[in-house]
Amino acid sequence: MTDWVVELIDAGGYWGIALLMVLENVFPPLPSELIMGIGGIRVGQGRMEMIPLLVAGTIGTTIGNFFWYLIGLKLGFERLKPLIDRHGRWLTMRWRNVEWLDRCFERHGDKIVFLFRFMPAFRTIVSLPAGLFRMGYIRFTLWTMGGALIWNILLVAGGYYLGARFERIDDWLGPITNVCIAAIAVGYVWRLVRWKDESAG
């Protein structure tokens, strides 16, 4: 994966960075750590500049997050009820769980979207409930961009200071990503096994 990312960045420059960051948020297995880290390496080599790199990365991240946000907005909170009633067991959710999430986003949506930007896997997934629970466009955009900018600064700084060594991030990032996915899968199976049908009895 590293070679393909490097080639696209070198061929497309800032546009390549923006495109990769859009794709990273639509297809989470493509890691932002690798993309922005390599961008940081290019800054250290004098082949890119810091500000345009951060602008391109942050805009790409925000656009990518809107993909899932708009899907959630299109589905809509109201359409969830029959879905939960019919498939609640397989979703491991009850309607009261959905109502609780709705209240959380109403009160703390800004913090949730901002903080989840720093969490592997969840930083993309959080955009879906933000749309489902009708978080406003402006709030979603501002908090997504704010969290993305800080995250990108950290990644670019890592690439800048670690240099070529950062290109080896894919060697350990892949296993970490696999562990996170496995943990999510195990958690889902655990909830499924312990699920109790409250309508029975």
UniProtKB/TrEMBL annotation:
The chain crosses the membrane at residues 12-30, 51-71, 140-160, 172-193. It holds the Pfam family VTT_dom. Its main location: membrane. Residues 31-160 form the VTT domain. It is a multi-pass membrane protein. It comes from the Bacteria. The keyword Transmembrane applies. GO terms for cellular component: plasma membrane. This is DedA family protein.
